[in-house]
């Protein structure tokens, strides 16, 4: 590590060694990084005066006291052995017993729950309502069967009500789909004025997300990965709009980085089935209508075939004894509950096949116990409705209307508990009401209990050290102003745009393996700004590729002003911002730019970062939008070059009371130790007449 | 004082592996120190290797007839092995039961039953585990169960100690760190006469790059051979290797690879190599730059290692990394991912540590190649350095100290004076681990709300079985095994004398060795003594 020394005056004090940043570590460093020497920030003892050694022992005493142990033993061990510290090494013969536990370094590198997202109470309860709904519908089915079997109810009534419900549900579903389609069509219109990216916007407009009657957002299940995110995927996260839209935005803005195949998948949403293909055959009916007709057709088909099959179903397992039937159907029902796909969103077309088949099988088996063909037909139809169609409806309902979801849950709980109570007791409505009360209490209680249990279960998860490698990345992209002339953007959209911009520019910066030669805040920042602006003015994928190309043709920014401390250094960022606006404006009408901007033969990375000195694999997470660097930004505490901050901080420490208000005259010299970057950039000589830009980067 | 020790583990010879050789080496060295050691494992190649076998150095091995389920682990029947284990413990007058490897059921059963029989127990953990996935959580529960009543735990590295302490909620003072070791004599760098020999008779290794001449330093353009010896599993970082390989081949014209080991990822590896352009995989003279050897036996490892300059280890988790020490002992520079206990194993001038990322592996190899060609390291010195770092005799001595600690007895004369006064009884429990059933139950009960109660039930049942066994097969009716005749005692005394004289390496005199060999000749054995 380079060390550069500098002057001030007077008697020797302790030198402050400050570690600035971290670049590639040498093996020796790697080594010490793992077993830090005990006195990290103290100087070698030969320069330490009496004062500082006093300070040291005092601070150690304090530390000892903090750790609640007598300092005497430690001191004795240190002095008596003379061999120094215990090291976390195996190859050295140490004068400590094998079971010696170093209280200072033991478990030093433990990371607790690095990626844990703690469960919260209400979101968990909200999630478990899905399970409650399914269990309730199974109970309702069983109750209905029992009622039919005991001939307390006519099967036609049951199936009649169920069919009515199904039809209503279908109309509701149809209405939602139509509305969605209309919205989709609307957002595909060119005028971008209503702000908001397509998905984010829809997320906030749909009544669902804001109707979330719980304070907390839903625990999100899967943040869409950029590669797989289709337009529809983000629908499922309406209750977590910001994340969802960010995910979608990333796929939108960063896709040009990676080959066209991936980009297509990402930027153009997979067409939903109900949206007609663009060059499909012309038809007199609207596609929506066609779909409705086909649904009706298949419904009638199922109805008829069931009618025909009923006699066969009735006699299928007639010869099996009733005991076996009860056992078999119970197991099948349990299988259904166990294997049901509780996590599926509305985009899943069919419920989990194993689960559905188990339930239908159960109903088929049960049907053979019924007296007549009508009974069998009704039960089978009912089971199809309950196990095949109802889950689909529930998913859509939960997606579209949170209040509806809640009321449906309540309704199902009431129905199930009432029915169960009436079935078991054989009593009338009074028993039913009692059952409802009891069932409500039991459901609420068990929901609460399981949730608490789950929360209690999550034990701290511990990880052993594997320090992530932080490369020096760039500052955020400068310009995203074009929104003004299109009527402003929503705050959320602005955040999305910033996040995308930061990710693109920092991702490019992180891909580099070389030292700075061009001024990365300007060069890489420009590309980030293209992504941001492109997203803001809603460039298509192709236009965005062109915009990146056009920006590349104008990319600029060198380090010469940096060295000289010229005010033109930040100006370069401005040049690029200007270029970005131009590039995006040119790309919109379709001006052609180069395509293979980043990794091409004379592409950005090869030219600006050196022929072999870059690697995009490391920053892949960032560029694909799976890791958001904007959340990792920090602020510069001092208005100076970043590489100087360690030194500034160190000097401030030096001037604090701990050292007894050192006067400048008392300091002879201060040695700063830092990373190669800070040494290269900031170890510049003091000059008599400093320009502000020079002074900001001068550590002398 | 000499102890009667039973090493219990599912993993033992004839299966190759790190745990297996650890048990064997530790046992022989403990025998050399005058203890009586038996190894208890399950039958291999059932029923061929079942019953009692003797290995070199009077090591008695019990192969219990058990059903092997997965990767030579026995089926977890908590109580089924109790009768036979009790017989063995009584026959051999065992005082200390030492279990190895946390994935071994036999080891956990042995520890449980030993505690029921009021014996001292020690456990050695050889592996690191995660905390998050379901399998680890189960394994950790099991570990907690069997660790809650163990006297002392030994881990192979400091990282492993931290891991185990957390997983099993142990008192860190009851956990010792005693590393693995290597047998330096079987991992020697290429000797000059061998070098000549290998150049004359190169028919066998025609496919492999020839071993470098150790006396010649590496020049800038000289071919450099990288050795990879690892089972090709996910956790061994094979994917990392697969991704780094093309980059390395592309960047350095002079690199060759020898990859030894097999596993589920071998196919991936081959496919990757097939997909690479020809000029990358073959040298100008048509030789393959990457040689896949498949799995090799432990004896062959050294012969492969001496053909290279560098050892590359891309493991994602590693408790100790014996292979690194072996490679350094053979005089290889080591490039290793900085995971688990790896950074503790070798000094930094022998190793280049990298992060488990593709580009950092590439960087590390580049750096190591640079170090090699710039002659900044003396590879020929490595062997002597490593020889002084790790030796099994030292490991056995340190293990013996653990035994002394838990039994509360004074240590052997040659085992004193390694630490200061103040460390004399460091980590010794204030009152000895109580064997009373009630105290044991209390310890188990604290394991968890549900688990604690379950464990208590298991322990109580175990105790009842013990009572029944005491009635059905009374202690008095069981033959006590005769100790090995006088040899052992005499050797021990002889050693004491030696240690008084200050010799650290405790090998018998020539005469004693001769006698020992005679005694061994009667014994059945299938292995050669590597020591």
TrEMBL record, chain A:
**Where are its TM segments located?**
376-393, 405-424, 430-455
Per the record, the gene is GPI2
What pathway or pathways are given for this protein in its record?
Answer: Glycolipid biosynthesis; glycosylphosphatidylinositol-anchor biosynthesis
Question: Of which family is this protein a member?
Answer: Belongs to the PIGC family.
Species this chain originates from: Saxophila tyrrhenica
Q: What is its EC number?
A: 3.4.11.19
What cellular component terms from Gene Ontology apply here? glycosylphosphatidylinositol-N-acetylglucosaminyltransferase (GPI-GnT) complex
Q: What class of enzyme is it?
A: hydrolase
Q: Where is the composition biased (Basic residues)?
A: 58-77
Provide a GO biological process annotation: GPI anchor biosynthetic process
- Which keywords annotate this record? Aminopeptidase, GPI-anchor biosynthesis, Hydrolase, Membrane, Protease, Transmembrane, Transmembrane helix
Question: How does this protein lie in the membrane?
Answer: Multi-pass membrane protein
Record domain MmgE/PrpD N-terminal: where: 488-615
Q: What is this protein called?
A: Glycosylphosphatidylinositol anchor biosynthesis
Q: Where is the composition biased (Polar residues)?
A: 9-20, 42-51
Query: Which InterPro entries is this protein grouped with?
Result: MmgE/PrpD_sf (IPR036148), MmgE/PrpD_sf_1 (IPR042183), MmgE_PrpD_N (IPR045336), Plno_GlcNAc_GPI2 (IPR009450)
From TrEMBL, chain B:
Please give an example of a GO cellular component term from this record.
glycosylphosphatidylinositol-N-acetylglucosaminyltransferase (GPI-GnT) complex
Gene3D superfamilies attached here? Glycogen Phosphorylase B
| Record bears the keyword Isomerase | no
Cite the EC number: 2.4.1.198
One GO MF term attached to the UniProt entry: phosphatidylinositol N-acetylglucosaminyltransferase activity
InterPro entries per record: Glyco_trans_1, PIGA_GPI_anchor_biosynthesis
**Glycosyl transferase family domain segment(s):** 220-367
Q: Which residues form the PIGA GPI anchor biosynthesis domain?
A: 42-133
| Transmembrane domains' residue ranges | 448-469
Q: Which Pfam families match?
A: Glycos_transf_1, PIGA
Which keywords accompany this UniProt record? Glycosyltransferase, GPI-anchor biosynthesis, Membrane, Transferase, Transmembrane, Transmembrane helix
One GO BP annotation here?
A: GPI anchor biosynthetic process
Its annotated function is as follows: Catalytic subunit in the complex catalyzing the transfer of N-acetylglucosamine from UDP-N-acetylglucosamine to phosphatidylinositol, the first step of GPI biosynthesis.
* The protein's name in its UniProt record: Phosphatidylinositol N-acetylglucosaminyltransferase GPI3 subunit
Organism of origin is Saxophila tyrrhenica
């Amino acid at each position: 590590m380079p060390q550069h020394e500098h002057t001030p005056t007077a008697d020797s004090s302790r030198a402050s060694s400050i570690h600035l940043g971290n670049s590639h570590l040498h093996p020796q460093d790697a080594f010490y990084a793992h077993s830090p020497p005990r006195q990290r920030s103290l100087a070698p003892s030969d320069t330490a005066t009496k004062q500082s050694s006093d300070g040291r022992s005092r601070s150690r005493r304090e530390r000892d006291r903090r750790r609640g142990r007598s300092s005497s033993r430690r001191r004795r061990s240190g002095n008596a052995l003379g061999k120094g510290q215990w090291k976390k090494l195996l190859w050295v013969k140490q004068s400590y017993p094998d079971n010696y536990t170093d209280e200072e370094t033991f478990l030093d590198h433990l990371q607790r729950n690095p990626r844990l997202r703690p469960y919260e109470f209400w979101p968990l309860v909200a999630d478990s309502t899905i399970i409650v709904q399914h269990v309730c519908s199974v109970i309702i089915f069983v109750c209905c069967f029992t009622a039919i079997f005991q001939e307390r109810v006519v099967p036609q009534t049951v199936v009649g009500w169920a069919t009515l419900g199904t039809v209503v549900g279908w109309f509701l579903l149809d209405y939602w789909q139509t509305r969605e389609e209309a919205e989709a069509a609307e957002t595909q219109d060119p005028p971008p004025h209503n702000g908001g990216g397509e998905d984010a916007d829809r997320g906030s407009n749909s009544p669902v997300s804001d109707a979330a009657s719980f304070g907390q957002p839903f625990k999100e299940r899967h943040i869409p990965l950029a590669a797989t995110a289709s337009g529809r995927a983000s629908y499922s996260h309406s209750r977590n709009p910001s994340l969802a839209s960010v995910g979608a935005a990333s796929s939108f803005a960063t896709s040009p980085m990676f080959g066209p195949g991936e980009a297509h998948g990402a930027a153009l949403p997979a067409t939903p089935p109900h949206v007609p293909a663009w060059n499909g055959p012309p038809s007199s009916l609207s596609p929506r209508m066609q779909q409705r007709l086909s649904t009706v057709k298949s419904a009638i088909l199922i109805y008829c075939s069931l009618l025909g099959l009923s006699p066969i179903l009735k006699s299928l397992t007639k010869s099996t004894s009733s005991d076996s039937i009860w056992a078999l159907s119970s197991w099948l029902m349990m299988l259904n509950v166990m294997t049901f796909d509780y996590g599926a969103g509305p985009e899943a077309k069919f419920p989990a096949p194993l689960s559905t088949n188990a339930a239908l099988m159960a109903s088929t088996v049960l049907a053979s116990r019924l007296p007549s063909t009508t009974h069998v037909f009704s039960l089978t139809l009912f089971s199809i409705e309950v196990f095949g169609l109802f889950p689909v409806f529930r998913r859509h309902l939960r997606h579209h209307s949170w209040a509806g979801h809640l009321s449906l849950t309540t309704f199902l709980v009431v129905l199930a508990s009432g029915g169960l109570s009436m079935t078991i007791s054989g009593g009338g409505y009074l028993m039913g009401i009692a059952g409802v009360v009891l069932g409500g209490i039991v459901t609420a209680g068990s929901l609460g209990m399981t949730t608490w249990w789950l929360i209690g279960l999550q034990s701290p998860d511990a990880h052993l050290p594997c320090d992530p490698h932080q490369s020096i990345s760039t500052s955020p992209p400068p310009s995203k102003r074009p929104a003004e002339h299109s009527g402003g953007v929503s705050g959320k959209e602005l955040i999305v745009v910033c996040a995308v911009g930061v990710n693109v520019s920092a991702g490019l910066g992180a891909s580099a393996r070389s030292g700075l030669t061009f001024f990365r805040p300007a060069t890489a920042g420009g590309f980030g700004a293209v992504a941001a602006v492109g997203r803001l003015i809603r460039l298509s994928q192709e236009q965005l590729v062109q915009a990146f190309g056009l920006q590349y043709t104008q990319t600029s920014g060198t380090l010469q002003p940096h060295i000289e401390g010229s005010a033109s250094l930040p100006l370069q960022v401005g040049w690029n911002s200007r270029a970005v606006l131009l590039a995006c404006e040119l790309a919109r009408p379709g001006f052609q730019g180069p395509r293979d901007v980043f990794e091409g033969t004379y592409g950005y990375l090869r030219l600006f970062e050196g022929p072999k000195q870059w690697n995009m694999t490391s920053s892949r997470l960032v560029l694909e939008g799976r890791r958001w660097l904007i959340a990792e930004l920090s602020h510069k505490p001092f208005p100076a070059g970043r590489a100087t901050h360690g030194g500034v901080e160190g000097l401030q420490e030096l001037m604090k009371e701990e050292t007894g208000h050192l006067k400048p005259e008392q300091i002879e010299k201060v040695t700063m130790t830092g990373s190669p970057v800070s040494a290269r950039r900031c170890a510049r000589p003091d000059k008599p007449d400093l320009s502000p830009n020079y002074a900001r980067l001068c550590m002398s | 004082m000499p102890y009667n020790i039973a090493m219990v583990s599912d993993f033992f010879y004839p299966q190759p592996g790190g745990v297996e050789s650890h048990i064997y080496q530790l046992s022989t060295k403990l025998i050399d120190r005058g203890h009586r050691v038996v190894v208890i494992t399950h039958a291999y190649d059932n029923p061929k290797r079942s019953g009692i076998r003797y290995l070199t150095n009077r090591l008695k091995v019990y192969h219990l007839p058990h059903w092997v389920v997965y990767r030579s682990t026995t089926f977890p029947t908590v109580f089924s092995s109790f009768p036979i284990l009790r017989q063995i413990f009584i026959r051999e007058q065992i005082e200390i039961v030492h279990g190895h490897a946390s994935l071994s059921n036999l080891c956990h059963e042995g520890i449980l039953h030993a505690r029921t029989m009021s014996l001292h127990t020690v456990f050695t953990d050889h592996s690191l585990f995660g905390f998050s996935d379901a399998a680890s959580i189960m394994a950790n529960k099991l570990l907690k169960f069997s660790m809650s009543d163990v006297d002392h735990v030994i881990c192979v590295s400091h990282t492993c100690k931290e891991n185990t302490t957390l997983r099993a909620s142990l008192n860190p003072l009851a956990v010792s760190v005693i590393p693995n070791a290597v047998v330096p004599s079987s991992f020697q760098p290429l000797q000059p006469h061998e070098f000549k020999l290998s150049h004359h008779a190169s028919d066998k290794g025609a496919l492999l790059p020839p071993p470098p001449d150790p006396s010649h330093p590496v020049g800038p353009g000289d071919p450099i051979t990288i050795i990879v010896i690892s089972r090709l599993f996910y956790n061994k970082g094979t994917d990392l290797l697969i991704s780094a390989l093309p980059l390395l081949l592309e960047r350095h014209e002079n690199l060759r690879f020898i990859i030894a080991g097999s596993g589920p990822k071998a196919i991936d590896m081959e496919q990757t190599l097939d997909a690479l352009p020809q000029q990358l995989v073959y040298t100008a003279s048509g030789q393959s730059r990457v040689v896949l050897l498949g799995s090799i036996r432990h004896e062959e490892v050294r012969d492969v290692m001496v053909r290279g300059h560098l050892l590359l280890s891309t493991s994602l988790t590693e408790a100790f990394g014996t292979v690194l020490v072996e490679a350094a002992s053979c005089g290889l520079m080591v490039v290793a991912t900085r995971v688990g206990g790896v950074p503790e194993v070798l000094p930094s001038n022998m190793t280049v540590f990298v992060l488990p990322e593709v580009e950092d592996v590439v960087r590390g190899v580049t750096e190591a190649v640079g170090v090699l060609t710039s002659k900044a390291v003396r590879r020929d010195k490595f062997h002597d350095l490593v020889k002084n770092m790790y030796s099994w005799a030292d490991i056995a001595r340190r293990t013996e100290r653990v035994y002394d600690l838990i039994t509360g007895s004074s240590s052997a004369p040659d085992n004193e004076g390694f630490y200061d006064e103040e460390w004399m009884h460091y980590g010794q429990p204030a009152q000895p681990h109580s064997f009373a059933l009630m105290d044991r139950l209390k310890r188990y009960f604290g394991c968890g709300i549900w688990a604690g109660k379950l464990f208590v039930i298991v322990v109580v049942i175990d105790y009842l079985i013990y009572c029944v066994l005491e009635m059905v097969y009374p202690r008095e009716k069981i033959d006590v095994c005769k100790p090995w005749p006088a040899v052992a005692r005499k050797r021990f005394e002889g050693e004491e004398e030696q240690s008084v004289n200050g010799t650290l390496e405790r090998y018998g005199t020539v005469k004693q060795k001769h006698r020992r060999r005679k005694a061994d000749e009667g014994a059945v054995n299938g292995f050669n003594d590597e020591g």
